[in-house]
Backbone:
């Protein structure tokens, strides 16, 4: 957090930061440099202030709110210190919320990456129609999660859904997707994977197309079959892509909200960290302090992922 | 397509293999993606009797726009559409302008701490908006911004993504062009609008389209900041429609609502997908 605050302070108050910085060789800015600084601030400050106000400030506010017993909309708040965190970790909420988050994240990241890689391999062939297939597979990624969730809710409907119709056709009864908490979680996982696997496929496809040809040819000449080539040559060469996808997919799964909210409005079995934080503050309870505490827990998780990603991005920047 | 080094995909030797390893997975993947969307469109055109039935038919027997009419009378769907257009157009125009100005400043204007500022933008890129909704709700509510356009738009205006993407692009521009104009005495504004912006068309289009898609689909913030139907955007309005009539007969109406939310972005994607895919997969392999 200290790093974040320091960076936020620099962003919000560059003038104060100027004073601290020793400029080698001279004590004051030349008029030219001063004019450049003025241009910089005119151009960049509105955006930087907005980011500071609506992205960085809320992080600090959440930490403060998380120490309060506070009903949203009420003027009274009691300082409870670690109380909300103690409640979260001792009431069993932590177990179920972190458990649901872990299952959702691992299943969606794993599902989208494995299926995405398979689709990418299929797309990476010189066959007509692959451009169209590539577009189609990527399309759900840009569509509204609310709209998509609604469509799938209809498909999963145990009585009128097309899935129940297919199941009846083979003599099976439709499961109660929405009422059964475990099945509700499976349902939102399937839809999330459906929406995101195209992203993984396109990123993997770009990875496959950037593989060095000579290595592949050498492996072929050595007599390695397609499967051996894939496991021992292609997969290891794709590892930077896999790492990139692992991080970005985990981040986006930890942020999944739209599909979960529209398909399971009350969080029956689908209370991930982000959804639980929403439900606690804006659902039936209006528990702002408790919600903020859950947001802080989520943010710490995201910070760890961000740290990994920053290192990765930095590496890409240097080698680009 | 046919190359001299590789046997053709449809040669006799390869035909079976092409179908098994190439077409089958592709057709399957395309079907799994397209079928639900097609089902949505077809269902939205069916009468209630064709949805609440066990005699399912794929195509509507009597094509009707009844569901769309009913969606518009149950909730103010036309108003949702207008709200979504207003929020998307204003929000993404300002975001793009801010991204261009900030990225230009970060690349072409001399200033200390540019690295620290860039790092702060990179970190902001990875802070999900969902973590900020409660404090931003309290802040905007305190300014009487609930159920207003500015209350919906303002908190999302700061753009880390657009700034990041355009900065990377501006860094790749040949410095000689700008140096020449600097010697000619062109100021920053002229350099920005007469040189940098005109030669950055595709990158700016990428940022614009990704921003438009994001604004149109945005859900959690408009959901929290609006509770009056006349100020809701389409995704929020679709939730209202779902809550206002939860009987099974409503599926046709809900699919009509989903079509209105999904199809505009689908059309934009179909027409300009190159830019959108480029923008959303940035930083993966080619950097």
Residues:
């Amino acid at each position: 957090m200290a790093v974040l605050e320091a960076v936020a302070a620099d962003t919000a108050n560059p003038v104060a930061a100027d004073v601290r910085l020793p400029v080698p060789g001279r004590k004051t800015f030349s008029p030219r440099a001063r004019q450049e600084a003025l241009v910089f601030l005119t151009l960049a400050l509105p955006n930087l202030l907005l980011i500071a106000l609506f992205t960085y400030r809320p992080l600090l506010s959440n930490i403060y709110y998380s120490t309060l017993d506070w009903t949203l909309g009420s003027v009274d708040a009691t300082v409870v210190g670690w109380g909300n965190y103690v409640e979260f970790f001792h009431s069993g909420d932590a177990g179920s919320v972190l458990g649901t988050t872990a299952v959702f994240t691992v299943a969606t990241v794993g599902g989208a990456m494995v299926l995405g890689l398979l689709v990418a391999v299929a797309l990476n062939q010189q066959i007509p129609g692959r451009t169209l297939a590539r577009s189609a597979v990527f399309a759900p990624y840009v569509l509204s999660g609310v709209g998509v969730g609604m469509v799938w809710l209809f498909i999963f409907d145990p009585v009128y859904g097309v899935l129940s119709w297919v199941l009846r056709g083979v003599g099976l009864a439709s499961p109660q997707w929405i009422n059964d908490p475990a099945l509700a979680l499976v349902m939102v996982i399937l839809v999330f994977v459906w929406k995101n696997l195209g992203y993984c496929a396109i990123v993997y496809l770009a990875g496959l197309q950037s593989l060095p040809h000579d290595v592949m040819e050498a492996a072929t000449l050595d007599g390695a079959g397609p499967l051996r080539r894939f496991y021992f040559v292609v997969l290891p060469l794709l590892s930077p892509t896999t790492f990139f996808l692992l991080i970005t997919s985990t981040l986006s799964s930890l942020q999944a909200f739209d599909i979960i909210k529209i398909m399971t409005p009350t969080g029956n079995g689908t209370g991930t960290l982000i959804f639980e934080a929403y439900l606690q503050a804006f659902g039936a309870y209006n528990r702002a302090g408790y919600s903020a505490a859950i947001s802080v827990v989520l943010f710490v998780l995201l910070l760890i992922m961000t740290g990994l990603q920053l290192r990765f991005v930095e590496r890409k920047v240097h080698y680009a | 397509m046919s190359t001299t080094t590789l046997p053709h995909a449809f040669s006799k030797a390869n035909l079976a293999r092409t179908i098994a390893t190439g077409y089958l997975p592709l057709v399957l993947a395309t079907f799994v993606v397209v079928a639900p969307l097609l089902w949505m469109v077809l269902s939205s055109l069916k009468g209630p009797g064709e949805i609440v039935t066990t005699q399912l038919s794929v195509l509507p027997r009597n094509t009707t726009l009844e569901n769309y009419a009913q969606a518009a009378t149950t909730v103010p769907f036309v108003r949702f559409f207008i709200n979504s257009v207003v929020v998307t157009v204003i929000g993404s125009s300002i975001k793009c302008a801010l991204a261009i100005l900030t990225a230009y400043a970060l690349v072409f204007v001399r200033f200390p701490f540019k690295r620290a500022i860039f790092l702060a933008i990179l970190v902001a890129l990875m802070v999900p908006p969902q973590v900020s909704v409660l404090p931003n709700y309290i802040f905007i509510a305190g300014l009487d911004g609930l159920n207003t356009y500015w209350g919906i738009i303002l908190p999302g205006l700061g753009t880390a993504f657009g700034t990041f993407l355009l900065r990377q692009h501006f860094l790749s521009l040949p410095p000689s062009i700008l140096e020449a104009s600097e010697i000619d005495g062109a100021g920053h504004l002229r350099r920005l609008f007469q040189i940098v912006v005109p030669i950055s068309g595709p990158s700016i289009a990428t940022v614009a389209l990704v921003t438009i898609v994001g604004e149109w689909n945005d859900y959690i913030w408009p959901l929290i900041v609006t509770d009056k139907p006349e100020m809701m955007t389409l995704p929020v309005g679709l939730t209202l429609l779902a809550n206002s009539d939860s009987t099974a007969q409503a599926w046709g109406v809900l699919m009509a609502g989903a079509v209105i939310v999904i199809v505009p972005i689908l059309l934009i994607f179909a027409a300009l997908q190159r830019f959108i895919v480029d923008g959303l997969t940035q930083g993966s392999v080619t950097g």
User: Anything to note?
Assistant: The radius of gyration of chain B is 24 Å.
